[in-house]
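Title: [Solved] Acyl-coenzyme A thioesterase 9, mitochondrial-like 3D structure

Original question kept below for reference.
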Amino acid sequence: MSFISCKFVARSLQQTGLNHSRRSFKLCLSRMSSTQAVADNEPLPTIHEIRSRIVKIMGASVCYDPKNIQLVKRDHLLKYLPKSQDELPVRSMQDSFEAAIIPLANDLDLRDKMVTVQGFVRLGRFMEIMDLFAVYISLKHLKIPNLPEDLPTPYVIVTVLVDDVTFTSYKAKPDKDIRISGQTTFVGKTSLEISVWLEQLSDGAWERITKAVFVMVARNSNNTASAFVNKIEPGDEREKQIFNSGLERTTVRKKESSESLLVHPPSVAEQQMIHKVFLDTIDKSNPLLGRRILPPHHVWMEGTKQHSVIHLHPEERNLHNKIFGGFLMRQALELAWLCAYMHSKQKPKLWHINDVSFKQPVEVGSLLRMSSEVVYTEKTFMQVCVNADVYHPPTKTTTETNSFHYTLESLEDVEKVIPRSYHEAMMYIDGKRRYDRAMRLINE
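Solution (posted by the thread starter after getting help):
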């Protein structure tokens, strides 16, 4: 589960303070696929100020004390949480809308952390920033009328899923500011769907970098149980379309979960596909079931694996003394990119991220192991899966914490991957499904 990184919070407080003066950033009138426009010359906060606002809303301490890593007692806030969703006022999409600036033009320290060797922007850093921005949008949506103004929020917001992050062909420049915007687009009883956009002004026009959909869950002040969130009521036809899209995504997620290969066997067409892949590895001159060979320009799937092991220090913790989910997403994305780079032998382009799930919180001090693998290929495209787990050396136990799925493209056709075992065949089919989904979204 994810929240804001304390390392970034401390830096933000130093740079901005809670009364940081807002910058004026010339913005073209744009709907940004959201329900709210941003006017010319409207002053926008920087992402540093957004971080500072979260600290103030949460009333959290940013100092790490290894002798006392428990949260500040928040039992006194439990009484302000509603017993049902009907106790809360209905909110509109505009209520949660916010836009901010990632100040790459003048913040040289931030630019240095975000620039790539090729002179572009590290997409993993974007995931960190979008994650904390989704937390802020969630907090902005929540409203409890009887909460005194001098008290922090009784909510804890955690990220449980990042769904359908689609990147455009535009390559962001590291020396120009980037606009981030977002709003609540759908809610359940205790969950919120947050859509986040990144754009950069180039030659007088706003260029879309990416759009991401985050699924957040509201927890009570002690993070021991779920908490009800405000309902959302669409206003005009545009908002109704956005809301219905969120409802459709929820339905699709449930359908895909029910059709998972962990629940149901592959379809007839998928079984035939795997059988054809198997037949392609049989030596035609000496056909034997127990003897397989690699066709030209093919590799065994297991040969594409790449690994990393990270000792997680307090620097990457969130306000709840767990490891910041944005940090995990950055590490996984960069490992996936390296995996695709080593397989294709060319620097790949990231097009899509699908179904980033947070299954367990990751503790400070853990040993995080990440394993990446090319699970499906189609001409120039590669589908890469990254699994993360926490390993406990004294007991030799492992706990799976996260899974990530990426669609990347090389400049030229890549070697095809061949599954060797039934387990790998299921990963191959799952990769094909995710690749097909990514292609539909990319081509929309």
